[in-house]
Amino acid sequence: MTSPKKLILFSSAFLAITFLISALLFYLDVLSKDDFKAFLLAGIITAFNTGLGIISIKSVINKPESVFIQRLFGGMVIRFFTTLIMVVLALLFLELNRISFIFSILFFYIFYLVVEIIYLNFR
Predict the structure, then answer these.
(1) Domain that residue 100 falls in
(2) Helices within 28-64 (DSSP H only)
């Protein structure tokens, strides 16, 4: 991959395939409704987090180094607490399989973190 556009295209295709496979497993009764719901919600929460991260990177990319570091890490802290609040609210108020939800969050968070790091290196 040589450009941010290709990276975003690759990650979108990977996630679409992942969601299609999970939907197929749900319709074949391999995944329960709670597991499928937990997987989808985890994907949505982490996608929202990554979207904020990409916006944050775009807004500070051409700033001086001290401003860049300050805003990037400040944005990471804000995004972390926003994601934490969404996860806690989902666990408290929705009927989810907690183990599936937490492991799905972990899977998507690591995937999106790698995508953000690669995206930042391209910029």
Answers:
(1) 4-122
(2) 33-60
Q: What residue type is assigned to position 109 of the chain? A: Y
Tokens 């990319």 sit on residue: 61
Rounded Cα distance, 80 and 123, in Å: 22
Whole-angstrom CA distances from 31 to 24, 61, 100 are 9, 41, 10
Tell me how many domains the chain contains: 1
Gyration radius of the chain's alpha carbons: 16
> How do residues 25-84 score in pLDDT, each as one tens digit?
889 988 888 889 999 999 899 988 988 888 888 888 888 888 888 888 888 899 999 999
Which amino acid is located at 56 in the chain? S
CB atoms within 10 A of CB 120: 14
Q: Which of 45-49, 97-101, 116-120 has the lowest mean pLDDT?
A: 116-120
